[in-house]
Write a structure and sequence with these properties.
With 160 residues, this protein is mainly α. The chain has a single domain, classed as Ferritin, CATH 1.20.1260.10. The chain contains 7 helices and no strands. The chain is elongated, with a radius of gyration of 16 Å. The model has no long low-confidence stretch (mean pLDDT 79).
Length: 160
């Protein structure tokens, strides 16, 4: 399997995983976040497929900005998602998967033939970093929702 096939497979597995998390979540806000993550993975796969065949530019996603809106709505509605130990472990597992994806894409960026392909893999690594950051923020949000939105780190979500 070549690196593009492997990357496509990784993105498909990520999409399925986030779709499963969305289906399991009783909270509409978290369900929406997981659905956005699944959609991002689909976009990544489509971009990889296109660049395999020709030159294509990956557009930046707005997932962090969109997620900020969901968190703000949850806070305004005084809805604090309660995670079970199982859910927390699933989100932590998703963070591990994102870390593995980041490492994979950075490693492959040094192995491809063209500058366009290198740029794509570097961009994919950056997108996966956003996903990891979002998941870490989600876990932090449910542990301290009243103060989380005021934190400097969270406030930078919209600045990427």
């Amino acid at each position: 399997m070549d690196i593009f096939e492997f990357a496509i497979q990784m993105e498909m597995e990520g999409q399925r995983y986030y779709e499963e998390l969305a289906a399991k979540s009783p909270n509409p806000g978290i369900k929406h976040i997981m659905t956005m993550l699944a959609e991002d993975e689909t976009k990544h796969r489509q971009t990889i497929e296109k660049i395999r065949l020709s030159t294509c530019v990956m557009t930046e996603t707005k997932i962090l900005e969109n997620t900020r809106n969901v968190f703000e709505q949850l806070r305004e509605q005084a809805v604090v998602p309660q995670l079970t130990g199982d859910e927390e472990s699933l989100y932590r597992h998703a963070m591990e998967i994102e870390n593995e994806s980041i490492a994979f894409y950075l490693d492959r960026a040094d192995q491809v033939d063209t500058p366009e392909q290198k740029s794509l893999f570097e961009r994919l690594a950056e997108e996966e970093r956003k996903h990891h950051r979002l998941l870490a923020g989600l876990l932090e949000f449910v542990s301290r929702p009243k103060t989380w939105l005021e934190d400097a780190e969270y406030n930078s979500f919209g600045n990427y």
